[in-house]
Automatic annotation (TrEMBL):
This is Uncharacterized protein.
Amino acid sequence: MQTEPRLPATDESEAQEFLELLEGAPFTAPYTGQVVDWLIRDSTVHAPDASPAARAVDALWRYADGHDLGAGEIAERVRDVAHAMSLVADEHYAADPSPRRPRPVHGRSVRKLCVAAGRRRSLAGPGRTVVIAQGTHGHTVYRPVAPSVPPDRAGETLRHEVLTVLAAHVHLADRRTFQGSGVVVECRHESVEVTWWYPDLEAEPDHYHPAWSTGGVRLLCSALLRGEGMKVTVQPNGALLVTR
């Protein structure tokens, strides 16, 4: 039988989060939470020189291996917590599906959601994503994000990524020289819009140009960007809206 993951006894910060997640876990029996509280309090009495939180975690694992009151449910919950802490390794995530401009979700909050869902419904997705199944109501994917990028720079960073992907495959318009038609990539706050443009000083991007809408350029751009893990949607005006 595979041994369940346990936290290092010397890592007090992780042990403290382990206890916080366990205390916030949903318990079926009304007395289970009281047993957990008693185990945590009792573990701090006998070895004052040791790490308090790590010692409490160890006491909970030992109790879960036994057959005393509530041990079965405590065993389930401590395994759910250990699973959540192993699964959610990044500091910030964004939910998908989500609003157009989602706010980053702290990793600790995603761990709480995983504990509430249980280890059977919180799964590792592609890359470092976390998938929380919601029964018959679908699922939510949490993908790691880098919150260090200020909001006013996020769109420009994404625009650079989009340009890098498209440059090798489609002709990009140069709006500075007004020479030739092509694909244009513009920031829209924290998202990016991709469409067709031609050199008319008074013209807006032509979302319905034949080369763009029916000639395969839009479809190619969409496939290339989706292949890089970006979210691409066709807007009512025919342009592509790209988000992370």
